[in-house]
Amino acid sequence: MADLLSVENLSAGYGRAVVLSDVAFRLGEGEALAVLGRNGVGKTTLLDTLVGVTRRFTGSIALGGREVGTLAPETRAGLGVGWVPQERNIFRSLSVQENLTAVARPGPWTLDRVFRLFPRLKERRQQSGASLSGGEQQMLAIGRALATNPRLLLLDEPTEGLAPIIVQELLAALTRLLREEKLAAIIVEQHAQKILPITDRALILERGRIVHQSDSAALLADPMPLERFLGVTGR
Amino acid sequence: MPSATLLGQALISGVLAGGMYGLLALGLSLSWGLLRLVNLSHFALAFLAAYLTYELGTTYHVAPWWAAAMIVPVMFLIGIAQHWLFDKFKVNELASLLITFSFAVILEVAIQLYWTADYRRFETHYSTMSIKAGPFYIPVLELALCMVAGVLAWGTWLWLRKTYVGKALRAAAEDADIAAAYGVDHKKLAYLLSGMGAAYAAIAGTFIALIATLAPTQIWAWLGVVFAVVIIGRLGNPLGALLAGMLIGASESIAMAVFEPAWAPVVSFSVLIAILLWDPEWL
């Protein structure tokens, strides 16, 4: 499978603080990667570095063979990096529809298609972003990233802090995106059991370094690394 | 108590005078609300445009609308140049206030050096024309100003709400870093908006030349009330700026008719204080 993303020797952080060290992995077209690890091991920093909002010290990030590590976030977004930040950060003063259209770029993900994936957003299209529930904000954050028609979707703890029924709804939508639409994605999650079934591969971070890489199915079949690095079982 | 006719006339005159507040507030509101830059040089640019309109009209006999057609694009470029400076030196909200205040003082001096401190008046045959509607008189120039202000405010409001660029600007105003991560090049948009703000100042300046008596110190005459209008209309809201301008204009005019002229500023600033006390997040 051709590499969509190739990360080599990456170290990054904030200010002078180095959070990630010597991170290297590859992601093929249409592949989904789970990034696992305890709190504070650098999962969010990894996604933020791919987006371009942290400080990169060394290493390279190649998207579709092109080095993007030195580019500004807006340029990376233009090349196909779609981001769903942990805090969701929807534009609260814009309506639901405006949140989607303000950043939209041409491609298969039209407004109608986003609304088909998340019918709740269509119902609330005229409401302001500030009036949405946590789950709806997460749907909007994902929809907004899709509206940019990304080649690579980065999701930072998409189910965090949401009610179980909303988590089910979101996981169903993510399953559709990753398994049916074959959208390449990297998902940061603390709860391995939620996302291993819908990803192809997984890596575990520990203190800013990759300590394990394998197929998601292998990790589900043999959860030893999960127990060792996350202190949980995979089931 | 003044008669109903006098009050009606005061209301009409106030709303029309408020159109000028709104027109001046428009560019200021956009740069403050959407770029978080408080641009006091806006007033000086408006007066520079007014003096240029006066000069072109009195020395070269250029009609004011042709003068505006020449001055507005130049001002647009000046707005872009000013933003280049802000961008290069990463000027923040408070620093922008101080720097643009300094720009305005420098421009005031430049205007005074060239045109002197004398009062100047651009007389035209239509400057005193008015339409009679029942017992009321409606001055033609002020009416034209309000119509232009209305078209600009409404057009800008629609532009911000309906176009990709407008929505991207609003998104970037709320969270520039997040907007950038979604591909919004807010730096380019900020240049466009700064140019627009200066162009709006030039349009206001053309009307100032026709309606007001020009003197360099007059740059500061509208500052207080327009500041209040920008805030009352809500930062970054062009229709709000115009409506607030007309509301304040009308209130001032009624206060002057009922009490005495000295009461006029009390009204606008009392409304401002009341709004900010009622909703501290109004800004």
> Which strand-content bin applies to the residues of chain B?
under 5%
Indicate the low-confidence ranges of chain B by residue numbers: none
**CATH-wise, what's the superfamily of the domain at 1-71 and 186-235 in chain A?**
P-loop containing nucleotide triphosphate hydrolases
- Calculate Rg of chain B over CA atoms: 19 Å
Report the top-level CATH class of the domain at 1-71 and 186-235 in chain A.
Alpha Beta
Mean pLDDT of chain A: 93
Which secondary-structure class do the elements of chain B indicate?
mainly alpha
Number of domains of chain B: 1
What overall form of chain B do the CA principal axes indicate?
globular
Please give the radius of gyration of chain A in angstroms.
17 Å
Largest sheet of chain B: 2 strands, antiparallel
Instruction: Give the total of beta strands of chain B.
Output: 2
CATH class of chain B: Mainly Alpha
* Major interchain interface with per-chain residue totals: A-B, 25 and 18 residues
Please estimate the helix content of chain B: over 70%
In terms of topology, how is this protein built?
The complex is a heterodimer of chains A (235) and B (283).
Chain A: E1 3-14, E2 17-28, E3 32-36, H1 43-51, E4 55-63, E5 66-67, H2 73-79, E6 81-84, H3 96-101, H4 111-117, H5 119-123, H6 134-147, E7 152-156, H7 164-180, E8 184-189, H8 192-195, E9 201-206, E10 209-215, H9 216-221, H10 224-229
Parallel strand pairs in A: 3-8, 3-9, 6-7, 7-8
Antiparallel strand pairs in A: 1-2, 1-4, 4-5, 9-10
Chain B: H1 4-35, H2 41-59, H3 64-88, H4 93-115, E1 130-133, E2 136-139, H5 140-162, H6 164-174, H7 176-181, H8 186-211, H9 223-232, H10 238-258, H11 264-278
Antiparallel strand pairs in B: 1-2
Helix pairs in contact in B: 1-5, 1-8, 1-9, 1-10, 2-3, 2-4, 2-8, 3-8, 5-6, 5-8, 5-10, 9-10, 9-11, 10-11
Keywords (chain B): Amino-acid transport, Cell membrane, Membrane, Transmembrane, Transmembrane helix, Transport
Protein name (chain B): Branched-chain amino acid ABC transporter permease
Transmembrane segments (chain B): 6-26, 33-53, 65-85, 97-116, 136-160, 189-213, 219-245, 257-278
